[in-house]
Design goal:
Length: 95
Amino acid sequence: MSDTPLKQQNTAAFYGQAVASFAVALGATAFGIVRLDANAWVRGFMAIAVLYLVTSAFTLAKVIRDRQEAGQMVSRVDQARLEKLLAEHDPFEKL
């Protein structure tokens, strides 16, 4: 059975860029809501809508990641079973 560790696919620069991009987008949206020419109820509604959208996006990303990781785990288990069967198989054994 192979014990190959999972490789990290993202670099620190990519992670930093993603965090910075998220911060800039959230900040710009918050600034736009604060500067919006509307009463407090409309600005409050927009702020709650943005927060709901952000939490929904995080939840969706987590669900997709979990499903992908579960698929990889099943694939690794199947690979281990196949390797075990091949290691135990003796082609010269009489049937």
